[in-house]
Amino acid sequence: MNRFIFLVIFLTLGISITYYMIQPEEKLLPVINPVDLDEEMVDRDVLMNRKGYGHKIGDFSFLNQNGEVITQEFVKNKVFVAEYFFTTCGSICPIMNKQMKRVQDAFADNEGVKILSFTVDPATDSVEQMKRYAEGHFANDHQWQFLTGNKGKLYELARKSFFVLKPAEAENLGDAGSDFIHTNNFVLVDRKKRIRGYYDGTSVTSVDSLIYDIGRLLKEF
Predict the structure, then answer these.
(1) Residue 67: left if φ>0, alpha if ψ -120 to 50, beta else—which one?
(2) CA torsion sign, 121 to 126 to 132 to 137?
(3) pLDDT tens column, 81-117
(4) d(Cα 194, Cα 190) in Å, to the nearest integer?
(5) What is the mean pLDDT of the chain?
(6) Which of 21, 18, 54 is nearest to 36 (CA)?
(7) In angstroms, what CA-CA distances link 194 with 60, 176, 216?
(8) Between 20 and 30 A from 156 (CA), which of 5, 107, 119, 121?
């Protein structure tokens, strides 16, 4: 009887081990470089200087919703998601930030995940305005930063680091001004400051994929 039980256990373990051994290994998320994107998405200076590979998000310094200076140190060795929006947007931004709240909730207890929401309208989006907006979306100050500051610096980061510049006919979504960078893209960045994916912030399905992929990046290192 004991020998029979041992045989059953042995066979069960063998089948289980074999099953996991033959499962295909999940591929890593691609590292996205300027050469991988539509030229219209990439700043002309980046293309002209042929910086096609080894791209990393550049340094930055802006004020958050609490009037604190936030730099790249906030996301050092973190997985983070970035977006561009503005607080008075009545079209896609409320949808996007409802979805971003889902990202925050999914990793509420994980110090390794951060969120950066950059304004495209710093003239309107003061620290006080961003604070009201952040509170309205139940943002965790330690995880989700709403950033404002110099417009030129905000746009330079968008065009040269995150590559969220859209073609002219699609650049303005909703009620943004003529020179606003305003896209529905969420940008996923890994611990090495490399872009690993773009996701439609207005799509539940796409944000589901983003949440899943954040989990994959957390396991990479």
Answers:
(1) left
(2) positive
(3) 999 999 999 889 999 999 999 999 999 989 999 999 9
(4) 5
(5) 84
(6) 54
(7) 15, 28, 14
(8) 107
Nearest in space to 130 (alpha carbons), one of 67, 196, 172: 67
Question: Minimum mean pLDDT among 31-35, 120-124, 170-174, 175-179: which range?
Answer: 170-174
DSSP secondary structure letter of residue 161? I
Please write the tens of the pLDDT for every residue from 180-203.
Answer: 666 899 999 999 999 999 999 999
Identify the residue with better confidence: 26 or 184. Answer: 184
d(CA 65, CA 52): 34
Return d(Cα 145, Cα 115) in angstroms, integer: 6
Which domains are assigned to the chain? 30-218 (3.40.30.10)
Cβ-contact 26, 215 below 8 angstroms:
no
Structure tokens at 82: 């970035």
Identify the three-state secondary structure at position 96. helix
Single-letter residue type at 139? A
Contact 80, 181 (CB under 8 A): no
- Which tops the pLDDT comparison, 14 or 211? 211
Tell me which amino acid residue 208 is.
Answer: D
The two structure tokens encoding residue 52: 């096609």
